[in-house]
Write a structure and sequence with these properties.
- The chain has 8 helices and no strands.
- Helix 3 packs antiparallel against helix 4 and helix 6 runs antiparallel to helix 7.
- It is elongated and about 85 Å long.
- The protein folds into 2 domains: 73 residues; 59 residues.
- It has 166 residues and is mainly alpha-helical.
Amino acid sequence: MDDEDKDKSILRVVAENPHAVRDRKILHAKREAKRTLALAAAEMLRVIADGGSTFDLRRKMIDALEAEDHFKDLSDQWLSEDEKKEILAQPLRFDWNSKTHYDEWELNREIGFARILQGSLRLAAHKILEERPHFGGKHSERLIEDGAKMITPPPAPKISKKNNAK
């Protein structure tokens, strides 16, 4: 290897990249904004379920806002709507078409729990705001009922008396 090849090393290319440090800071700030938003959302659910501290909720919400502000200062952009939905709707995210890790029963069970959760959260949002759910909550209740049917195990096969007598 001659001197010219040594000058073209990977380390030199990275060191010469004027945006490398800035890009890493932006990536870290984005990860922190997402992480703190997820923590605030989880704490809000705990408070709603009567198990969390409202002081902790306030602190985590402020942390989430400050982290996103820091990300905005570095990158001149906010977290996108899709990124926020990905964080906040994580329990509902599920690859409905993938059966790679699930047999049919496990897949139906996961879908069922997601539907129950979705219907329950919709009703809870109305309850918190002291609103009457749209159409009396019929859509949310249907999601919960459909989900419950999906997680109920199938009935055991019936054994006929003729086969037992033999």
